[in-house]
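User: Um, any thoughts?
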Amino acid sequence: MRGRDKLLQDVGGRPLLAVVAARAAAAGWPVLVTLPPRADARRAALAGLDIRPVEVADAATGMAASFRTLAREVSGPLLVVLTDMPEIRTADLEALIAAHRAAPEQVIRATDADGRPGQPVLFPAHLVPAMAELTGDEGARRLLGRVGVVPVALPGRRATTDLDTPEEWAAWRRRSGL
């Protein structure tokens, strides 16, 4: 993003982080938002939302640091929603939660309309303790093979639209009108 924080990009007049966190909170589950140390602008973006910020002291070591932190904070199932995916809606999260209720021991993973795996991913409670052992920047990918994965198709490319560069943001804004 050439020095800009993609989570603070404007989406409909609000920072992306706040938009995604509000959508997650509306799905009815407790929302924890992992933040690196000294993330004052991100904390400010979350002000007033029904969420709990959780500092990840070793965030610079990679994505697994967030999972290790969450493993200490959460005892039940964990719905991981990446906050750089602006097309994920509350209804999408509700669909994943409903699939989890039908298959509580399985990983529930969003796909795009064509079946390509994406995000969010809902991990069953029995896998959450294993997150405490993750390392590096690959996230929880290796946990996906431990149990069956139930795919939940989301409309269009919602589950796979991940914006990481100014060019991707510009193209998305042209397509979405935001």
Remarks:
- The helical segments are 16-26, 40-45, 64-73, 90-102, 166-176.
- The chain has a mean pLDDT of 93.
